[in-house]
Amino acid sequence: MSGTGRGGLAKIDTRTKRDDEEMCQDDIATPVKAQTIDELHSLQIKKSAPSTPIQGGTAGSGRSSFDSVVDQDQRNKQQLQSISASLASLTRETGPKVVKGDPASTRKAADTPKLSSQSHHATPALNISDSSLKFTHILYNLSPAELYEQAIKYEKGSFITSSGALATLSGAKTGRSPRDKRVVKDDSTAKELWWGKGSPNIEMDEQTFLVNRERAVDYLCSLDKVFVNDQYLNWDPNHRIKVRIVSARAYHSLFMHNMCIRPTPEELEDFGTPDFTIYNSGQFPCNRYTHYMTSSTSIDINLARREMVILGTQYAGEMKKGLFSLMHYLMPKRQILSLHSGCNMGKDGDVALFFGLSGTGKTTLSTDHNRYLIGDDEHCWSENGVSNIEGGCYAKCIDLVREKEPDIWNAIKFGTVVENVVFDEHTREVDYSDRSVSENTRAAYPIEYIPNAKIPCVGPHPKNVILLACDAFGVLPPVSKLSLAQTMYHFISGYTALVAGTEDGIKEPQATFSACFGAAFIMLHPTKYAAMLAEKMKKHGATGWLVNTGWSGGRYGSGSRIKLAYTRKIIDAIHSGSLLNANYSTTEVFGLEIPTAVEGVPSEILDPMNTWSDKKAYNDNLLNLGGLFKKNFEVFLNHKIGTDHKLAEEILAAGPSF
Q: Per the residue annotation, which of 239, 257, 262, 340 is the catalytic one?
């Protein structure tokens, strides 16, 4: 710098610098190769290369790079034809014109998409409509980052939390709508499925399903863009199911990206026709005047068509559990048992299944840092062993605390969907205790986010089958060893007890029964699943256990909850095999075998009668609970298993006797 300018400031010397002068770094940076802002933005993102090598497309094969491009274009065309066929209306011969990509991006390139190998349509039929004249943009198997962008841009109520998760709202419905779920009853399903009292299957006819399907498909085709996920169910490659999810929200697409098994790019190239398709038009209601409809919500499954339609609810859990219902139908046909359970495996390959309703500790006890997690909710037991059905976890978030559930807490990061949570408007930190939107706040994340997850999520045949019950009556032992018949009885019963509020602040325990520990999702009669469970346990030498995580020394209000530390010691003894070698005595009424000693657990609490000071009150509560079991089991009494009633009678005899 030399001289002074106005105001006494030094003049800036803009003369060319000499070679010996040090240059500022900015002076030697190469200029960008762009003339406009749009050109600069186009340089920011590079095209994804074809993920699958073309067979024979190597040097010396005689195939040119042009041939490879043509093959890739042909694959894309076939993929779009498959998606168009999925979206085909039943009143038209062809599906809609579809093109890949975000419509906002396409409009920048050209006002109207040109028909090419990236789009698909057929000659319009005579009954041409406005929707058949437009393009439907397909956002196909987008990455979490892309889905974040779509949600933030276009879906109100979408935010990025301080931990990096995507916070979303599920609309008016914040839980499943079991009374609005329907299954098509035809000649085949009338014989195969469980219908009538106690069954979760509410019938609808084929015509009504097609009316709802048409309504859902027309809604999706009327949109500028739809999200399409092609994914898998079941980690066992021999029994994998291909599923396609067509939805209108980035939230739903990211949820299923996390919950289903994510195909590799190579697998996606050859995905082909799906085995089952979900049409999620949850933002659009069903027609209440349609036969079988009882509200503006309808979740419909047609097993013959391998399709599911969702109308009038945006709660993402409907998709997850709809697919679980499908697996409860398809897998038993292959002699594979589908199970609503947690599953983990020890370092030596010993596998344990955990069954339990909400509040029994299933998630807490199946998550063990000394064991590998195969899965937290849905599994299959085949001739090859056990396998997780899903590719992710759907964890409850209400009152989540890092110290109590560190794995779930740490899994809520980029890529995770958190539903209906409340967060600080400035910091975006989630308050997991806030119930302003819903009590049923949830997080959906890939199973790889759990540090000790076993990938692939498969394991050998289980050694232990653990049935968890939170008994608020205080009369079930902390642990009991079950016979096969007892295992079937308690598996069919699916017992736990809830603490319900009554008048004047008095709280009484309320018995709850859910067949197979998942009555809302099973398709066949519970005894069929129970018989398969007993058969597999007998064949592979598994032992059944009933573990009470509820009350001891009195019912709820007078006794105390069994300490989690004691329950963990019991579970450890089951895993190690030491509990098999214990001495046992038998209880009255339920006829349960209880050990006389478990390492680390006070012996006096192992027999619940010892913990009650009022023996008459204990006996009254025991008989009361036994009566509730008997009453619940009445709905299963007349079901025939096999060629005679022998197995049914054997199961019934394993129940309470008094």
A: 340
- Catalytic residue check, 358: yes
- Please say if 367 is a catalytic residue: no
pLDDT tens column, 493-519 = 999 998 643 233 435 789 999 999 999
For residues 382 and 335, what is the distance between their CA atoms, to the nearest angstrom? 7
Helical (H) or strand (E) element with 568? helix 564-576
Dmax (CA) for the chain in angstroms is 111
Q: Phi and psi (nearest 5°) for 600?
A: 85, 0
| Predicted confidence (pLDDT) per residue in 642-653, tens digit | 555 566 778 889
Q: Which of 100, 137, 176, 461 is catalytic?
A: 176
Catalytic residue (one of 252, 362, 454, 528): 362
Q: Rounded to the nearest 5 degrees, what angle is found at the Cα of 498, between the Cα atoms of 450 and 637?
A: 100
225 part of the active site: no
Q: Which of 182, 321, 525, 528 is catalytic?
A: 321
Amino acid at 75: R
Q: Distance between CA atoms of 373 and 334, rounded to whole angstroms?
A: 25
* Owner of token pair 């058949």: 132
Percentage of the residues of the chain whose pLDDT score is greater than 90: 72
Q: How far apart are the C-alpha atoms of 331 and 315, rounded to whole Å?
A: 26
Which one of 338, 363, 441, 496 is the catalytic residue? 363
Q: How many CB atoms lie within 10 A of CB 588?
A: 14
Question: Which is catalytic among the residues 92, 173, 442, 555?
Answer: 442
Is residue 546 within 8 A of residue 479, CB to CB? The reply is yes
Exposure class string for 160-185: b at 16+ Cβ within 10 A, else e:
ebebebbbbbbeebbebbeebbbbbb
CB under 8 Å, gap of 24 or more: what pairs does 205-210 form?
205/291, 205/292, 206/302, 206/304, 207/291, 208/182, 208/290, 208/291, 208/292, 208/293, 208/300, 209/182, 209/184, 209/300, 209/302, 209/305, 209/309, 210/90
Q: What is the pTM of this model?
A: 0.87
Active site residue 191: no
Has 156 been annotated as catalytic?
no
DSSP string, 263-306: PPHHHHHT--S-SEEEEEETTS---TTSTT--SS-EEEEETTTT
pLDDT tens for each residue of 189-237:
999 999 998 899 999 999 999 999 999 999 999 999 999 999 999 999 9
**176 included as an active-site residue:** yes
Distance in angstroms (rounded) separating the CA atoms of residues 55 and 68 = 9
Task: Choose the catalytic residue: 300, 350, 368, 377.
Answer: 377
C-alpha Rg value of the chain to the nearest Å: 30
Query: What secondary structure letter does DSSP report for 453?
Result: B
